[in-house]
């Protein structure tokens, strides 16, 4: 086995870590880069709309994707099930990373106001979370062949989704 030794500060010494990082990335071993929502999960106070903008955009985009796929799936297109389930899983991950799922579960109004001081942002989060809950019920209803195929839950989720979209467009 050959060991590459290089003097500190030399071109070779700087290249070895870069080559290692490229190798790890090529092999799929690179650490996951922090997402826009992950940085918000541990914050306790005052997340502004500006700080939340990138994460909110990712959440909204994923919610839009889920809505389209779930509409087709609950409307009778079984080929859209996997895509809807994937989008749902991605959205749940984003909400967990941003701490929104925890906010909804704890239902401590003071905590939510402290973290999200702007009313429109709180409204956006509330409507997104409500849409996700209804979309999950729609996905489960369609998966299990329940009468209506989850369509009533989809319609309620879609109503909340439209409200979230309206707030998103107003804030960002």
Residue share in helices? 55-70%
Cα gyration radius (Å): 21 Å
Largest sheet: none
Low-confidence stretches: 1-6, 13-33
Mean pLDDT: 80
Return the domain count.
1
Strand content: under 5%
Broad structural category: mainly alpha
Give the topology.
Elements: H1 11-26, H2 49-74, H3 81-98, H4 100-106, H5 109-115, H6 119-143, H7 151-171
Helix pairs in contact: 2-3, 2-6, 2-7, 3-6, 6-7
What would your notes on this structure say?
- The protein is an all-alpha fold and 172 residues long.
- It has one domain.
- 70% of the residues lie in helices and 0% in strands.
- The chain contains seven helices and no strands.
- The protein has helices at 11-26, 49-74, 81-98, 100-106, 109-115, 119-143, 151-171.
- The radius of gyration is 21 Å and the shape is elongated.
- Mean pLDDT is 80; it is low at 1-6 and 13-33.
Summarize the structure.
The chain has 172 residues and is mainly alpha-helical.
Relevant terms:
single chain; 172 residues; mainly alpha; 7 helices; elongated; disordered N terminus
